Amino acid sequence: MTPEGLTRLEDELRMLKVEERPAVIRAIAEAREHGDLSENAEYHAARERQSFIEGRIAELESVIPSVEVIDIARITGDQVRFGAHVTILDEETEEEKSYRIVGQYEADMKNASISISSPLAKALLGKTIGDTVEVPAPGGARSVEITAVRYL
Question: Where does the record place the Transcription elongation factor GreA/GreB N-terminal domain (predicted)?
Fold first, then answer.
């Protein structure tokens, strides 16, 4: 995992424990005051939210102590490895996209971060600029060319 990814997980855990957990406990208490719990939608929604929060806290508490943090600042070169920002060109559509290869718990497609265990990352790992790679996709394998590799 990257140092930034670990920081995000630790911040999320802290927020869940300090803000979200107490807020949902208050919401459950308020909903109980409204009477019959069997027909109380607010109560059921708060309990569902509480279940999600407690599950996520448990997950983060088990993941955080066991992560291996890799300092990307010490990695250089043009070979695709963990932490690389990789730009690829789809040879069929001529569409260029950039991704960062990160750990499983920090992958986020909105931020163009893909998990090191994803099919795309697995296909790119170990390759260099100019290499063409076959990437498995739901509609059939896609051929992409690596046009840039950066470590920031």
Answer: 1-69
Say which CATH number the domain at 31 has: 1.10.287.180
The model scores a pTM over 0.85:
no
**Residue 77, φ and ψ in degrees, nearest 5:** 110, 180
Q: Read off the amino acid at residue 130.
A: G
Q: Whole-angstrom Cα distance, residue 96 to residue 65?
A: 37
Q: Give the separation between CA 152 and CA 121, rounded to whole angstroms.
A: 18
Residue 53 is part of which domain span?
3-66
Q: Quick one: 145 and 79 in the same domain?
A: yes
Q: Which pLDDT belongs to residue 25? A: 93
Express each pLDDT in 129-147 by its tens digit.
Answer: 999 999 988 888 889 999 9
Q: What's the per-residue H, E or C state across 20-55? A: HHHHHHHHHHHHHCCCCHHHCHHHHHHHHHHHHHHH
